[in-house]
Amino acid sequence: QKEVEQNSGPLSVPEGAIASLNCTYSDRGSQSFFWYRQYSGKSPELIMSIYSNGDKEDGRFTAQLNKASQYVSLLIRDSQPSDSATYLCAVNPGNTPLVFGKGTRLSVIA
Amino acid sequence: GAGVSQSPSNKVTEKGKDVELRCDPISGHTALYWYRQSLGQGLEFLIYFQGNSAPDKSGLPSDRFSAERTGGSVSTLTIQRTQQEDSAVYLCASNPTGTAYNEQFFGPGTRLTVL
User: Which end of chain B is more exposed for a tag (fewer CB within 10 A), N or C?
Assistant: First the structure.
């Protein structure tokens, strides 16, 4: 069974710090990887996608992928209270629907 | 451009009634997905449509659930004889091609409450 694992949190970081969110996946053949942000009561919003090993940066967000270790992470630099949300990791095992983790709740303390 | 839209935004129904939830994907997106999210839980895949292919129904929890997609665009998720455990937010997502790069964009969801 294809699985995506995330620490449920809450992960609490002070404002201005780096938040590090981690995700592991079971299907070694997975091809694409995504991070979604979900505010309470809202639907998931795509914030990052990554397809090859290494880092991908977009503003304050950096996604990191290590296919050998089956590990994806999201770094949020200069964390702001507005970053407080649940972050969902999603993995595409192939030409099939995405498999989502249960999410990590991030709380940025002002 | 317009994103994925869903209607209604909220639906309250009595146990045993049927409900229909609607999804309008982003124009031109060939792939459409339905998910369910119960309070405090992750996303549960329900069904997937890709172009004119037969839908992937592997996530539907029971035969009370069905979905159709007319003309490759609008989709309707139908729940018959609703039960209290069907209460959840039903999310629709669409994707331009349904291929491996599979960036899915979500609608705002329909919050279903079964009394």
Answer: N
Sign of CA dihedral B11, A103, B23, A82: positive
Q: Which residue in A43, A98, A100 has the most chain B C-beta atoms within 10 A of its own C-beta, making it the best mutation to test that interface?
A: A43
Shortest distance, CA B47 to any CA of chain A (angstroms): 9
Q: Which residues of B touch A36 (CB under 8 A)?
A: 106
Overall average pLDDT of the A75-93 stretch: 95
Q: What's the whole-number mean pLDDT along residues A62-78?
A: 97
Q: Is the peptide bond before B8 cis (omega within 30 degrees of 0)?
A: yes
Confirm if B8 and B87 have CB atoms less than 8 A apart. Answer: no
Instruction: Name the residue type at position A6.
Output: Q
Q: How far apart are CA B77 and CA A84, in angstroms?
A: 32
Nearest partner of B24 among B48, B36, B6, B10, judged by Cα: B6
